[in-house]
Write a structure and sequence with these properties.
Blueprint: E1 28-32, E2 36-39, H1 45-59, H2 61-66, H3 82-87, H4 104-123, E3 130-136, H5 140-148, E4 220-222, E5 229-230, E6 259-260, E7 264-270, H6 283-288, E8 290-293, E9 299-302, H7 308-315, H8 338-343, H9 360-374, E10 385-388, H10 392-400, E11 433-436, E12 441-444, E13 484-486, E14 492-494, E15 511-513, E16 521-522, E17 526-529, H11 530-535
Parallel strand pairs: 4-6, 13-16
Antiparallel strand pairs: 1-2, 2-7, 3-7, 4-5, 8-9, 9-17, 10-17, 11-12, 13-14, 14-15
Amino acid sequence: MKYVFILLLICNNCFAQEPKADFEILNCKPIKANFLWAAKTELTNIQYLEYLHYIKKNNGMKAHDKMLPDTAVWRNNLGNVEPYVNYYFQHPAYRHYPLVGITKEQAESYCEWLEMILNDKFSNDPKHPVQKINVRLPTEAEWELAARGGNPNAIFPWKGEEMRRTDKKFKGQIKANYVRGRGEYMGVAGNLNDNADVTAPAESYWPNAYGLYNMSGNVAEMVSEDGRTKGGSWGSRAPFLEIDGKDEYAGFTEASSKIGFRYFVEVVDFKTVKPKKEIELTAKLIESMLTEIPGDNSFLISKYEVSNQLYNLFLKNKSNTKYASDQSLWITEMDYPSIIENDYTSHPDYSNHPVVNITKEGAQAFCKWLSEEYNKFPKRKYENYTFRLPKEKEWEHAARGGLEGSLYPWGGPYIRNAQGCMLCNYKPSKDRWILDTENAYLIPGISDSELRDAAAQDGLLITGPVNSYHPNSRGVYCMSGNVAEMIADSNITKGGSWGSDNPYHLQITSSETHKGASPYIGFRFVAITKHEMETGLHIESKGE
């Protein structure tokens, strides 16, 4: 089981709260951050032979024979094809050629088997970070995402529109296995030959920016949509090789010598590496979260956005459960939300991430509950303090940290430091690409791996821990980015979020309309005396 029973490596991640999987040596490459991986090549004959061996050993010869590819499909092509009928799947010379002659049902059965084998291995390996995966055919949209290699404007998986290499070393060589003219499967003899009369080995030609081979040509690849394939085959002309081109084999129901597949791996759940002790609400804990914002009307503000673990203490009171976060909202914002949707509020790995998907009423109820709980403690630093959402002027005053006229909480005019590191958690899609003037197409500005997903350029796919990055001069964290924060005196949010793709939204004076619970919106609180609450002293602060 060369491709299956193999230890998977663990990638390092900037934040321990977000474990990473590495399927590189399982013949897979990352497509959507850490959630979706694609097989590097089309499934090969040797990989399918491993599956057949398992079926024969565990389910018997009848089940084995049912899953055999139909080698007679080669007779549908012109010429002397009997060698392919007799040897293509069986002979060792073709072990690393793409599998053909199978139905979609057989492809799905292979994916189910691989999923079972891997999940069984993961569950018995306490050191492996992955708890559960799905192995499946990709959707058409996922296939196109993988084929583009990070370039949203790509026509073919390779750079540019030319079908032959133009560089000096490989000049004239074909970039994919396809047909140049009627019946011309081999192409022009010599240097311009694609070296394939039918299929070519699965790692032939050049991979795209994601490291994926033969996304166009060689064999057309099945997708999850019934009867659909993508990418064209060794028997296709150039227009069918385009990523969003017409489906040459649309509606196929039978096995073909021109159709194969590659599997995709979707991570569903990670293991908890280290269980975390549940926090206990004490006066000392609450006070440790506060920092003073000085001025003629000084006040206290929480250093951090309210975290999942703190909000969960609030929800322990049954009367407060109506304010629980709506995790189904993740599905409207993410392509692969299952991990987040199931675990974000409860999994220890996300305990120190900001609570999201809650209403303003829920945030206000939390503040009321925190006020009541704090004032119950006999030993407390502050007397008769009330917690509430900050007003807009208070929030801006705290964000500036004493630096008047500052665009951002850190004081500078830029959202990266001198080393190019990002200073907050946002989605820098607008500065993610640079223009390749030679070929007039967008390419990554740094590297394919670093810029593969705009949301993860800063080391975070979604939210980060509430104490991420550096605090401002008043010790307040994430006033810009991470989550946009609710304001008491209007239906707006301040500071932008992990999903903000415009640096303007991260500026202190900027605001966005608050339209209800969202994965992008959380909150923090201020603490003021009962007298200040009644007189409204903090609606306006001097120096604003």
